[in-house]
Write a structure and sequence with these properties.
The protein is mainly α. It is 89% helix and 0% strand.
Length: 201
């Protein structure tokens, strides 16, 4: 590992410690990752029930939602976190009579971007993973039925893994958290099915 990379990682650790942003980043990663997986889960299940027969249609809808979530997640978090950090710095300036260590300003700028990046990438990442079977189907390397099946399975697997991660963060049983996440997915599926039955009646 180069000296530059080591120094950069050391600075990042210092910034995160100073701002106590690690917990915020974890929460945003899970929440927005959950949103990405659930959004694609709903799009795919709804498309399957509606009989959409072209993987390109699902890809277009899914990638559009993915882009929207990523952009809104990034800029929304950037503005919100920037405002919070600026408020905190102003409080520190009042407390110390404008004698704040410059590293706090560096940390505030870095963390605002860091949190925003996680906020934007996490839903996009989970969405792209869930959509990947339709890329394969569009290339005629898999059937559309298999793409639907694997996409829904991937979404549920992502939800389960996010639950496991939450359990680890909470120092509790990750399996219970994972099962709870899957239960949310199952509830969503039931609601979509009921809506379809109601509209088709």
């Amino acid at each position: 590992m180069s000296k530059f990379l080591k120094n950069s990682l050391r600075k990042v650790r210092i910034y995160l410690r100073i701002t106590k942003a690690s917990g915020i980043a974890r929460r945003i990663f899970v929440m927005n990752g959950f949103d990405g997986a659930m959004t694609i889960f709903g799009i795919v299940l709804g498309s399957w029930i509606a009989g959409v027969s072209k993987p390109e249609v699902i890809l277009l809808a899914g990638l559009g939602a993915c882009l929207a979530m990523g952009v809104s997640g990034f800029f929304g978090a950037l503005m919100a976190e920037k405002a919070e950090r600026e408020r905190h710095l102003k409080d520190m300036e009042e407390t110390t009579n404008n004698n704040v260590d410059p590293i706090h300003y560096e940390a505030a700028s870095f963390v605002a971007f860091y949190v925003a990046l996680i906020s934007g990438l996490s839903p996009a990442l989970t969405a792209v993973i869930s959509l990947s079977p339709f890329v394969i189907a569009s290339l005629k390397l898999a059937s559309l039925t298999n793409a639907y099946t694997f996409s829904l399975a991937l979404s549920l697997a992502i939800l389960f893994l996010l639950g496991i991660y939450l359990g680890k963060v909470a120092k509790e049983n990750g399996w219970l958290y994972g099962i709870a996440m899957i239960a949310v997915g199952a509830l969503t599926a039931i609601i979509i099915l009921l809506i379809q039955l109601f509209l088709g009646a």
